[in-house]
Design a protein that fits this description.
Radius of gyration: 21 Å
Order of helices and strands: HHHHHHHHEEHHHHHHH
CATH architecture: Orthogonal Bundle
Strand order of the largest sheet: 1-2
Shape: globular
CATH class: Mainly Alpha
Helix content: over 70%
């Protein structure tokens, strides 16, 4: 009887351990939410939670794209600079539009120009990595420098201003206006991010292309021998990464109603942290867009909660750095155990 009870306890313990391991990011989210709500009751107010979605929107777009690259076992540290460049170029293009353009035209130009810039830089990164065999870190470091330099060249070193009010619709407008909330409850920027998250999640998890991404990240040689064009997969993933970063840059530019050459500086670190915390392995072969977004929510909650508790911004950077390190260490330990 004692043996049976012991076996049952061991079985339950294993199930709890497996559940905790599988849903660690959700548990962290809950614990952080509870902790910050105790520290400041304003944390769980609907207005703060809605604002939280707008605060994490830019990082979410960068996280979506870099998830693809990290699953390949690669890296892209240029996404912050690419986002800034997309914002600057988009602002310049929209400022040159004739007066009285419709909202639809403005949105099409914003997304069209921004995505073109981002996909172009992503293609450059992909070409360097696949054709010229440049180490991803070095290739994207070069892109980071080039893109940031172009930001200042195109903008003349100052913010691109003088934009019409409809330019800010994507980043600032809200739906469902009420007497209690005359500006509206649901931010357009949140809707845009949700749409891209759904599309990119489906692309990665439900399509042949997505399966090829995982296969390439797991073992590039085996994937190649299986008939997968690994070079093409890598190239396309870097293009996707650049395009998603650019959408984030456009949303940020729209939110600020100008194009800032210094925007999104160091945002690549937030995106990498979010992706790794969401369970995407830096060694490649595993991860998902949905869980990466949960990691993004963790970063946003930490920043938002510490702001509400009036913790110095410098200490916030220290905390984020420690979190990145812990996430990487845990990822490496899990890989070693599996081997």
């Amino acid at each position: 009887m004692e043996k049976i009870e012991g076996t049952m306890k061991v079985g339950i313990g294993k199930k709890i351990g497996a559940f905790s391991k599988k849903n660690a990011i959700v548990i962290v989210l809950v614990l952080l939410s509870v902790g910050f709500s105790i520290g400041n009751s304003a944390f769980l107010k609907p207005s703060n939670l809605i604002n939280l979605t707008t605060q994490m929107a830019i990082n979410a777009m960068l996280t979506i794209g870099i998830t693809y690259v990290i699953i390949l076992g690669g890296i892209d540290i240029s996404i912050g600079s690419v986002a800034a460049l997309a914002g600057v170029v988009t602002a310049l293009a929209c400022r040159a539009l004739p007066a009285g353009v419709s909202l639809v035209t403005m949105v099409i130009v914003q997304l069209g120009v921004g995505i073109s810039v981002g996909a172009g830089f992503g293609a450059f990164n992909g070409l360097m990595v696949t054709k010229f065999k440049v180490v991803p870190m070095i290739a994207t470091l070069a892109s980071l420098t080039i893109a940031r330099g172009l930001c200042y060249i195109f903008s003349g070193g100052t913010s691109v201003s003088g934009l019409t009010s409809i330019y800010s619709w994507l980043g600032s407008a809200r739906l469902f206006k009420t007497e209690a909330k005359p500006t509206g409850w649901l931010p357009i920027i949140t809707i845009v991010v949700i749409i891209f998250v759904i599309i990119m999640h489906i692309l990665l998890s439900k399509t042949v292309f997505g399966r090829h991404v995982y296969a390439t990240g797991s073992n590039r040689n085996v994937a190649h021998l299986s008939g997968i064009n690994t070079q093409k997969i890598i190239f396309l993933c870097y293009m996707i990464c650049g395009a998603m970063a650019a959408v984030g840059g456009v949303l940020n530019s729209s939110k600020l109603q100008n194009g800032q050459p210094g925007a999104a500086e160091s945002y690549e670190m937030f995106a990498i942290a979010s992706t790794v915390m969401g369970g995407t392995s830096l060694l490649g072969g595993s991860g998902s867009v949905a869980r990466a977004i949960l990691g993004c929510a963790v970063v946003a909650i930490i920043n938002n909660g510490m702001n509400l508790m009036h913790i110095d911004s410098y200490w916030q950077k220290v905390v984020l750095g420690v979190i990145i390190l812990l996430a990487v260490v845990m990822d490496m330990m899990q890989k070693q155990k599996s081997n």
